[in-house]
Design brief:
Number of strands: 4
Number of helices: 8
Strand order of the largest sheet: 1-2-4-3
Strand content: 5-15%
Largest sheet: 4 strands, mixed
Low-confidence stretches: none
Radius of gyration: 20 Å
Order of helices and strands: HEEEEHHHHHHH
Mean pLDDT: 84
Amino acid sequence: MFGKMQSGLTQLYAQNRGGVTDTGEYSARGISRTVYWFHDESKRMGDYSPFGTLLLNEQAKEDFSEDVVDYVFLHEVGHDQMGFIGRTLFWIFYLTFGLLLLAGIIALPRTLVAAFQFAPSTVMVPAYLVAGIGITVAAMLPFAAVCWIDETLAELFAISKIGRSQYRSVLDEVKEESDAGLIRRIRLRIQYPPESLILWIARKRGIGSQ
């Protein structure tokens, strides 16, 4: 019963990515999971749903090597390592801080207008503007922290399976094929930690040294 409900919710969740086109077992580095495939020409190669299921983009198989697809699969499996309680806490924090960030962005124009209105003098306007922008940035930090922790754990799991050398090769291939716009680059920087930080942690913890 739970499996059918999980599958149905995943099918519904995948509608915003064009819907599920196929379902089947996928294996990489000795790990097998059921994967829900979708086809979307966006840059999104995979997803770990709130229901504990894995989704992969068929477009990735057309654009990238098998090594990249394996990495994406292992990264999404890595999100599962938190366990039920960990994932539940993640979604609570993610949604809470995400809504606060969204509210801060929506309120930013009004905040900037208020800075002009309530500044005691024109000399103080820049300080009030900085304070207004700072409020939005402050709302961004806890959201980014939650995302970075989650994505770091997923990346470290993938590195533990493919090694640091192949991890670098995979990211180089993805960078060569990707042409991200400004908005996407900003979103990626907020949600994903830099490659250098991931590799530094992996080296310090001795992960993926093979």
